[in-house]
Amino acid sequence: MIKPQSTLRTVYCDMTNGGWTYILHRFDGTVEFHDKTWNEYKEPIGNVSGEHWYGLEAIHELTSLFPHQLRVELKGFSSSTVMKHLTFSYFKVDSESNKYKLNLCGASTTSTLNDELSIYNDVSFSSKDQDNDPAFTHHAVTRGSGWWWTGSGKINLLGPYSGDSTNDVDNANCWYGYYGNDYKGLKIEILKIKRNAPPAYPTYVVNGARWRPFWWYTAGTHWDFKMDDVLANSYGECSQDSAYCFGRLPCSLKESGSEILAVDTDSTPNIYRWSFSSSNNVAHAAWLAFHDHTQTASGTLQDGNAWMPTVVQGMVHYLSHY
Fold first, then answer.
1. Under 8 Å between Cβ of 172 and 156
2. Which residues pair with 175 in a beta bridge?
3. Cβ contacts of 123 within 8 Å, gap of 6 or more
4. What are 110-120's pLDDT values in tens digits?
5. Are 74 and 84 in contact, with CB atoms under 8 Å apart?
6. Quick one: CA torsion of 209, 213, 215, 220, rounded to 10 degrees?
7. Which residues of 15-27 are buried (b: 16+ CB within 10 A; e: fewer)?
8. What beta strand segments (E) does 116-200 contain?
């Protein structure tokens, strides 16, 4: 049992690899998760000793206290199918006042399941009696289940438990890509979360603001000649003792309000601060690189706006502010 905020809750935990809390578990079809109202999805469905949905409010309470990661595990009905998995480094569900909006990023490149979940990032939850779907279609009705619906998503994890004879995204608990190009039902569905251990990076305070390193290089250091990407590492991948780290910003950051601090290591260091902004195309291109690992084509910013820093005084390395 856990008490993330005001309510003591019973949970099912998988204690392998540091301990995971199940928020969805389906394996035999004994509990129905489709065709529910907003208030039903808000609360737990089923029992933690069997099939169950943890409930939107409980998921919000748990993920709002500390950063969490999410792991998806799916298996089909045939004995020849295998358990496939997909992990995200950041997972959070907002409060009911924000319609339990989903915050999700950092899909692992070592996952065995195709990523059909990232499109739901920053999307509100919808049920048959509450349509928060930005698309024209009320997908909680057409798909028959609640979810963070947006457009024509290719999964239906809370849909009817249909077996693998049904090949219909509206009538099967499916994940497009598990069976190739089919929408057949799944036998086992697991969504589980685990608290993220923050990277052991130091925190610096400059002018009252907290800064943490994400990119650094020690002068005179040599790196593998095969390394040709100076933003190759996801946030937290580098050891703080490394002589260099070609890291990116934490994926959970939002462009508005995020800043970076650049510092050299001279005896009298120069310190510059830049603020990201989607309204400045140069600043936005830098954000796409540092945050999304997305390259802006050469020549497209020749007539871009200047992105001028604020000059500050004194520290070490490249730091991110959040």
1. yes
2. 155
3. 101, 102, 132, 134, 148, 149, 150
4. 999 999 999 99
5. yes
6. 110
7. eeeeebbbbbbbe
8. 188-195
Strands (E), the chain: 13-14, 20-26, 45-46, 52-53, 68-75, 84-93, 102-107, 188-195, 204-206, 209-217, 244-246, 259-263, 270-275, 310-313, 318-321
Token pair for 17? 């690899």
Report d(CA 320, CA 123) in Å as an integer: 26
> CA gyration radius for the chain?
22
Q: 3-class SS at 136? A: coil
Sole residue written with tokens 């802006």: 296
| Number of residues that this document lists for the chain | 322
Q: What is the pTM of this model?
A: 0.84
Q: What is the pLDDT of residues 244-297, one digit of tens each?
A: 999 999 999 999 999 999 988 767 778 899 999 999 999 999 999 999 999 998
Q: Is 180 left (phi over 0), alpha (psi -120 to 50) or beta?
A: left
Return the bridge partners of 102, or none. Answer: 93
Task: Identify which of 248, 258, 251, 287 has the alpha carbon closest to the alpha carbon of residue 89.
Answer: 251
Chain position carrying tokens 């792991």: 71
Closest by alpha carbon to 87, among 65, 124, 115, 55? 115
Tokens 């409010």 locate to 57
By three-state DSSP, how is residue 97 classified?
helix
CA distance linking residue 110 with residue 220, whole number of Å: 33
